[in-house]
Structures are given as structure tokens and as C-alpha cells.
Amino acid sequence: MEKSIKSSALNYGLYLGATLVLVTVLSYAINLELLTKWWLGIILFLVILVFGIVSTARSKGLLKGFISFKEAFSSYFITIAVGFIISTLVSIVLFNVIDPEASEILKENVMESSRQMMENFGAPQSEIDKAMLQMEGENQFAMGNQLKSVAFQLVFYSIIGLIVALAMKRNDPNAA
């Protein structure tokens, strides 16, 4: 893979990371509860997806319109991975070092949202209580849990990346 493709994907990853950090920091500063809203999750999903696709398209453009499956997927993956790593590092510092109390507030908000959702779906009270006990014992902002979360997100977005790479690949008919 050409150095310019890796460089381009890395740059898009830095932009993605900066965007995710900006959303996290602004949500932290304005209203922590924003980080528990389903619509913000959907918006971030779309933003991440767009960055990966744009990075792949840019790499294809750098290669004069021809890109192999491997190059397309690598461009997508580098962008997503760099963005997630930056965002996760900032979240770890923010919620474990700078303001650990904020992680407790978020946990309480998530628990309340989960309780309401389970009640709306008619879950038995025993199941709700069981879920609340489990959530109470977890620290979703602990470094280990954050790293697990990044790993699962990378797997999920990699599956999407395989589809994007398949759609974007175009082999050069003049290549040997």
C-alpha cells in the first residue's frame, strides 16, 4: 500500500478522533446526559461510517480510481481504529482522572434509561432488578472495560468495512 494512502487514512483517523473527542468534551461540558441519548449514538454511528467511507474514497482517488480490496479495507480500518483509540484515551483520562464522579453520574443515567426501557417493554420486575444489580457492579469507564469496548466496536465496524471495501474496490485492468 502506498505511503500516501496510509497517510491519508491516518489523517482522516485524526479528524475522526478529534470529532469524537469534541462531542465527548462538549457533552461533558454542556450536559452529561447527552452521552446517554440514543439519537446521539445514531449520529455518531453515521459520522464514524462517513469518515471510513470518505477515507476509502479518498484513497481510491489517490490511486487514480483503482483500489484493491485490501487497500480499501486498510484505509477504512486505519481511519476507524485511529479515531477510536484517540476517543477512548480521552474518555479514560476524562472519566478516570479528571472527573471520576462524572462516570458515576453517567452510570446512574444509563441505569435509569435501561430501567425505563425494560419497564416499557414489559420486562418482569425480577429481571429489571437483576439487570440493575449487574450494572451497579460494573464500571463502564474502567480501562479494561473501555479497551473491551474498543475491541468490540472495531470488530463491528470492520464487518461494515469489509462491505465498504467490497463496494469500493476496482481493479486496474492494465495491471499485470
What is the fold's blueprint, element by element?
Blueprint: H1 3-30, H2 38-62, H3 69-98, H4 100-120, H5 125-136, H6 143-168
Helix pairs in contact: 1-2, 1-3, 2-3, 2-6, 3-4, 3-6, 4-5
What would the keywords be for this entry?
176 residues, 0% strand
Note down, in words, how this protein is organized:
By secondary structure, the chain is mostly helical. The chain has one domain (3-168). The chain has helices at 3-30, 38-62, 69-98, 100-120, 125-136, 143-168. The radius of gyration is 19 Å and the shape is elongated. The model has no long low-confidence stretch (mean pLDDT 91).
The shape, in one word, is: elongated
Largest sheet: none
**Which spans of ≥5 residues are poorly predicted at pLDDT below 50?**
none
User: How many DSSP-defined strands?
Assistant: 0
Structural class: mainly alpha
What's the alpha carbon Rg, rounded to whole Å?
19 Å
SSE succession: HHHHHH
Integer average pLDDT = 91
Number of helices: 6
In short:
With 176 residues, the protein is mainly alpha-helical.
